[in-house]
């Protein structure tokens, strides 16, 4: 069984690999598996579109800004804690872990939504324009 490492978790691939060498049996099985994959695709497309609607540059920008803010809060807190030069308390460690978890969750959501667009589950319309080097959402 192989596994793929993504940014924060492992996803294992345990798809059945037929041992039967009969070409007709293999074609039939591949056809069945394609139907299964299409069913999953159609289900994802329908459900995600119903829940999220369409995606656009504004949604991605808001997620990216939220992740950037969470990351900067996490790092700023760590810098502030270490300014005193004393040992970090368990409460401070818990606070850092909470801030890190918030950042990681937002980063994962951003990546998940990007994968939804990449796989065709979510439609994307570009509504971001640059004006004078600044990104403006319309």
From TrEMBL:
<feature type="region of interest" description="Disordered">
    <location>
        <begin position="1"/>
        <end position="26"/>
    </location>
</feature>
<protein>
    <submittedName>
        <fullName>Long-subunit acyl-CoA synthetase (AMP-forming)</fullName>
    </submittedName>
</protein>
């Amino acid at each position: 069984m192989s596994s793929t490492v993504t940014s924060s978790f492992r996803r294992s691939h345990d798809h059945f690999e037929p041992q039967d060498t009969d070409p007709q049996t293999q074609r039939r099985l591949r056809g069945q598996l394609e139907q299964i994959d299409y069913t999953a695709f159609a289900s994802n497309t329908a459900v995600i579109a119903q829940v999220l609607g369409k995606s656009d540059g504004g949604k991605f920008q808001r997620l990216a800004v939220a992740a950037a803010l969470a990351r900067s809060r996490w790092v700023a807190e760590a810098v502030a804690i270490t300014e005193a030069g004393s040992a970090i308390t368990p409460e401070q460690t818990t606070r850092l872990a909470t801030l890190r978890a918030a950042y990681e969750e937002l980063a994962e959501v951003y990546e998940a939504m990007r994968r939804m667009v990449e796989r065709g589950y979510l439609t994307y319309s570009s509504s971001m324009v640059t004006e004078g080097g600044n990104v403006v959402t319309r």
